[in-house]
């Protein structure tokens, strides 16, 4: 705790003997009353002292040559910092009432007449010294109070922030718990259907029609599971910034029109009034990701609009933006939910028996993909029952003419099917993939791990190898590197099969020497297209 500075007393007198007498007299009590005594021989010197120090009281001689006591007092009190310093005038003459009035107008608090009576001087000085010390103590307490107030304010701000962070974390944890419950529900439904259908196929006496229906159920529910996994992976990549956009000039209106045609062809919009109003608008974007945005917005509208409802889909240009709007007459969005519809793990209906289904992450993915394209998406609603409108804005570019299609001949069907080596450690996966490829007329040899695969490749010299990345012993990356290093297998076409589909995984696959990278579960049509192609094609 800082020590309080001793009060100071200034004695101003042009007479050296009088000045010495007064300072010596005051010095007798300085230790007892805890003050310091300073001296000045003129008004100018007194002003200099006042500029350097604060004084509890000033003993000021009235009759001084040059600047007298009254003028000195007036100059001292004109300065803001020294305006309140009490001044006691000292004079050898008995002051009349006019002199007293003039002194008080200049800021005097009292008079002393010479010869000075020590007891009276001591009594007067003690009052002002005590007052100065009390004022200094009050200032110190005020500083401490201000510092404590600042500390308490900072503590309160910190505590408020910690409470808000804790509440936010609790909300997020609750939302994640609900999401995990929904995820379990969404995964168990198709898995249950697949398990039942697979069991049905093996039952004795099942009809051919029943087998066909069971196979369709397995295929449909497997596709549904794949979409759930894709949504989760896409959201994870988008949130971590690992989605790489393959930007090309895209007419948003044409892309949306194609998506609407798909919905009509599959019957997904049959129970709704789907009203398009599409004006051309060109953006620089990844067509696949823009289709994903459009599909998620349309799925959201279909999910929360009762059959017979109206869904308006519009595109137009507005200043430097191309705008996509999806407006529905559905259940609407509550005011408290509206600011959070794009948050991760947030969904309007979180009950497990909800009829809409889904994971509630589609709109989060829409917002992140829009941001990656340099755009934004907003939601509007009049509340429950008032429908909702989702508006996407993307930066507009100048119209890009479609490039002329390059001439090509379809000689692929005339080429002989390549021999295939499948390196896959999962027994069921290896057996099913071998059977599928054989059904399509391919000659397939299989190996259960990386070392067996290398031996088979060197012995059989197949034209193409399908290699799982997660192999025991040596992984698929090492298999590819060794095949590329061997002159006998250097020119073999290599296709990676993996459950990892992030940008880093694609980079590692290509650096290892693969021609293509396919993510499990592999769509059979895509696989046939890749195997049938003689040249490495762009990654989907």
Name some characteristics of this structure:
elongated, 540 residues, single chain, disordered C terminus, 5-stranded mixed sheet, alpha/beta, 5-stranded parallel sheet, 17% strand
How would you characterize this protein structure?
By secondary structure, the protein is an alpha/beta fold. Helix content is 48%, strand content 17%. The protein contains 14 helices and 17 strands. It has helices spanning 16-33, 43-52, 69-78, 97-105, 118-201, 208-239, 252-266, 287-303, 362-372, 427-439, 450-460, 476-485, 503-512, 524-532, and strands spanning 8-12, 36-40, 57-61, 87-91, 108-113, 248-251, 273-278, 282-285, 310-318, 321-328, 376-381, 388-395, 420-423, 444-447, 464-468, 493-498, 516-519. The strands form 4 sheets. The protein has a 5-stranded parallel sheet with strand order 2-1-3-4-5, with helices on both faces. A 5-stranded mixed sheet has the order 7-9-10-12-11, covered by helices on one side. Strand 4, helix 4 (97-105) and strand 5 (108-113) form a beta-alpha-beta unit. Helix 6 (208-239) packs across helix 9 (362-372) and helix 7 (252-266) crosses helix 8 (287-303). The radius of gyration is 45 Å and the shape is elongated.
Q: What level of helicity do the residues show? A: 40-55%
Average pLDDT score: 82
Largest sheet at a glance?
5 strands, parallel
Radius of gyration: 45 Å
């Amino acid at each position: 705790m800082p020590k309080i500075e001793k009060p100071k007393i200034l004695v101003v007198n042009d007479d050296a003997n009088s000045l010495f007498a007064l300072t010596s007299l005051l010095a007798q009590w300085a230790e007892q009353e805890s003050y310091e005594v300073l001296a000045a021989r003129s008004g100018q010197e007194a002003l200099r002292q006042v500029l350097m120090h604060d004084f509890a009281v000033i003993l000021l001689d009235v009759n001084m040559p040059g600047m007298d006591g009254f003028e000195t007092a007036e100059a001292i009190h004109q300065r803001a910092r020294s305006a309140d310093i009490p001044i006691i005038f000292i004079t050898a003459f008995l002051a009349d009432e006019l002199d007293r009035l003039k002194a008080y107008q200049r800021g005097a608090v009292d008079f002393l007449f010479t010869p000075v009576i020590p007891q009276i001087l001591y009594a007067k000085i003690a009052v002002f010294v005590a007052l100065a010390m009390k004022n200094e103590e009050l200032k110190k307490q005020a500083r401490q109070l201000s510092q404590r107030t600042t500390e308490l304010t900072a503590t309160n701000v910190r505590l408020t922030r910690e409470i808000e962070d804790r509440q936010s974390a609790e909300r997020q944890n609750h939302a994640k718990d609900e999401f995990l419950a929904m995820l379990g529900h969404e995964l168990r439904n198709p898995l249950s259907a697949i398990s039942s259908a697979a069991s049905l196929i093996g039952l004795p006496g099942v009809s051919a029609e029943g087998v066909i229906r069971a196979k369709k159920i397995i295929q449909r529910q497997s596709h549904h599971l794949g979409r759930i996994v894709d949504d989760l992976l896409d959201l994870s990549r988008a949130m971590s910034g690992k989605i790489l956009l393959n930007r090309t000039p895209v007419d948003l209106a044409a892309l949306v029109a194609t998506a609407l045609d798909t919905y009509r062809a599959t019957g997904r919009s049959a129970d709704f009034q789907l009203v398009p109003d599409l004006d051309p608008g060109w953006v620089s974007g990844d067509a696949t990701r823009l289709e994903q945005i459009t599909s998620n917005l349309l799925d959201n509208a279909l999910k929360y609009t009762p059959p017979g409802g109206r869904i308006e889909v519009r595109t137009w240009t507005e200043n430097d933006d191309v705008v996509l709007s999806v407006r529905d007459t559905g259940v609407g969005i509550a005011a408290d939910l509206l600011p959070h519809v794009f948050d991760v793990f947030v969904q309007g209906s979180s009950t497990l028996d909800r009829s809409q289904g889904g994971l509630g992450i589609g709109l989060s993915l829409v917002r992140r993909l829009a941001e990656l394209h340099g755009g934004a998406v907003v939601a509007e609603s009049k509340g429950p029952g008032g429908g909702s409108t989702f508006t996407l804005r993307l930066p507009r570019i100048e119209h890009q003419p479609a490039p002329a299609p390059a001439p090509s001949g379809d000689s692929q069907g005339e080429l002989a099917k390549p021999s295939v080596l499948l390196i896959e450690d999962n027994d069921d996966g290896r057996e099913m993939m071998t059977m599928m490829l054989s059904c399509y007329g391919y000659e397939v040899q299989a190996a259960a791990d990386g070392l067996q695969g290398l031996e088979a490749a060197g012995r059989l010299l197949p034209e193409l190898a399908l290699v799982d990345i997660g192999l025991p012993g040596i992984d698929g990356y090492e298999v590819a590197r060794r095949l590329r290093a061997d002159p006998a297998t250097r020119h073999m076409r290599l296709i990676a099969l993996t459950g990892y589909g992030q940008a880093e995984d694609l980079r590692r696959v290509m650096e290892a020497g693969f021609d293509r990278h396919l993510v499990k579960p592999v769509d059979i049509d895509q696989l046939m297209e890749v195997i049938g192609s003689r040249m490495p094609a762009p990654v989907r």
